[in-house]
Amino acid sequence: MSSPLALLHYGDAQELGMRTAVGANMAVRRSVFQALGGFAAHLGKQRGTLLCGEDHDLSQRAVAAGYRCEYRPELRVRHWVPSERTRLRYFLRWFFWSGITNAVIEAAPADAKRAHTPASLLHLLRRFVGGIVSAPFNAITGRGRNAAIRAMDAAFALGYLTVRVAGRASVPPPGGSAR
Prior knowledge:
Elements: E1 14-15, H1 30-35, H2 54-64, E2 70-71, H3 88-106, H4 118-140, H5 144-164
Helix pairs in contact: 3-5, 4-5
């Protein structure tokens, strides 16, 4: 499971293949960016949401079009993170929206072959229920880290199911269950 503050390190410089180039430190040739049509308009931050995935989508389209994505660990950025983004409430919202993002990306026509079966949706439902049941148990038994992980896993599953069960790739309105 990835997180909004994790430092992604793929090791030595290498071709990424189908893995995602992280947008916070992404460089793309203008000609490639234009040939791919830029970032997907339906992804990326929208007011009141934590929708993301435009970097993932662009990376996937680049590889599918025959371009090469590279990981270059010597290229670094420093990014200031507000203290509000270090709290569990933010992480829960981020994982909920990450679930939505993944469902929206997978529902795209080019990814129709990856459509989820009822069995995989059942798996996500189990992740959600398991998370909301085990998170409080872990919390009251003094395992705060495990409680947070399980709660974030449940938030991801809920976000994913919110889109997939509705049978469409639309984004829930800001506010709602994302908070």
